[in-house]
Amino acid sequence: MSEPLLKVEGLKKYFPIQAGLITHTVGQVKAVDDVSFDVYEGETLGIVGESGCGKSTTGRMLMRLLEPTAGRITFSGREISELSNKELRAVRRDIQMVFQDPYASLNPRHTIGKILEEPLIVHGIGNAKERKARVLSLLNTVGLSDFHAKRYPHQFSGGQRQRVGIARALMTNPKLVIADEPVSALDVSVQAQVLNLMQDLQRDFKLTYIFIAHDLGVVRHISNRVGVMYLGHIVELAGSESLYEEPLHPYTQALLAAVPIPDPDFKREAELIKGDIPSPSNPPSGCTFHTRCPFKMDICTQQEPIFKEVKPGHSVACHLYNDAHHNDIKQSN
Ligand code: SF4
Fold first, then answer.
1. Atom number of ligand 1 nearest to Cα 235
2. Nearest CA to 212 among 223, 198, 201?
3. Labelling 304: which of 33, 61, 140, 152 has CA 20 to 30 A away?
């Protein structure tokens, strides 16, 4: 297999918890705790989990909008964490982000034309005429018209604003786009249009996507591979087909059980997930999912399961797939 476009190794982000009059650190929120994955050129990697699982923090560290506590991020063969500010600016041309709430990320006092031109000015791309031409061209690419350049964000619908957010991300002709819940705030009918647009753009612009979502249903059709996060860890990572057809981790099984299926005869095998996600400032011992897991065993509270490949291209962190248990599981399937 070729070298990955993005390689993430042992990535951690701990936020200090501070207390007292003379502020001192009394603990840490382990928002992202030892996350590793690769992303290959032209693919879409979905990252899924409930809110607070660390998926958005991971996305922000990849752009270095947040400094990692530990770990390595290598993009196009260069380690991002070691770059100077100037070098980082050049890399940011190649990695762009689409946010969940385009309204919050679009300056309400600027016209869409100005908003779209800004990344070109920041990166010193083109003269005024060339920049204007690129703005109009990308507006058309995302399904909007030339006249929209003169309008303000509040004059757009949610779906149109997300189209603007996508156009802005593409202005610098990036290689990697990190989309953080790009359709979660949109109506279901509009979600499908934006997802289709993103797929078309991926093909036309040879883009690589990291697609962050809280719902496995949303990433299903757009992702080549999917990583499932729980309390700062990736607990399962596999090709889409393998993950959706044969989810191994009890958490993934529960997430899939929560995805609505329009078939009254469909019988669910996995139970819906119970209880709340524990606090990442005080994660459970051993397997952090043990407080909610219907298959919990003694070992689960004592030992953290190792994240390992149990089938080609399919990795999971769960004691059920230790060699001793693995045969039982196979038989019961
Ligand atoms: Fe459940 Fe144990 Fe697997 Fe964790 S390691 S998911 S508690 S069976």
1. 6
2. 223
3. 61
In the chain, % of residues over pLDDT 90: 71
User: How many CB atoms are closer than 10 A to CB 145?
Assistant: 10
pLDDT at 332: 45
For 18, counting Cβ atoms within 10 Å of its Cβ (0-12 exposed, 13-18 middle, 19+ buried), the class is exposed
Q: Is the minimum distance from the CB of 72 to ligand 1 under 6 angstroms?
A: no
Place of tokens 């189209």: 163
Taking a C-beta distance cutoff of 8 angstroms, is the pair 27, 281 a contact? yes
Domain ranges in the chain are: 6-94+172-261+268-276
Ligand 1 centroid vs 214 CA: distance in angstroms?
A: 21
Which residue carries 């809280």 as its tokens? 214
Question: From ligand 1's centre to the CA of 277, what distance in Å?
Answer: 15
Closest ligand 1 atom to 249 CA:
6
CA–centroid distance, residue 53 to ligand 1 (Å): 17
Q: Is the CB of 250 under 6 A from ligand 1?
A: yes
Residue 258 Cα, ligand 1 centroid: separation in angstroms? 19
For a mutational test of ligand 1's pocket, the pick from 273, 308, 318, 328, i.e. the residue with the most ligand atoms closer than 8 A to its C-beta, is 318
Q: What is the reported pLDDT for 1?
A: 61
Query: Is 6-94+172-261+268-276 in CATH node 3.40.50.300?
Result: yes
Indicate the pTM of the whole model.
0.91
Q: Which residue has the tokens 């647009």?
A: 197
Centre a 10 Å sphere on the Cβ of residue 41 and count the other Cβ atoms it contains: 15
Structure tokens at 234: 């990736």
What pLDDT, in 10s, does the model give residues 208-256? Answer: 999 999 989 889 889 999 999 999 999 999 999 999 999 999 999 999 9
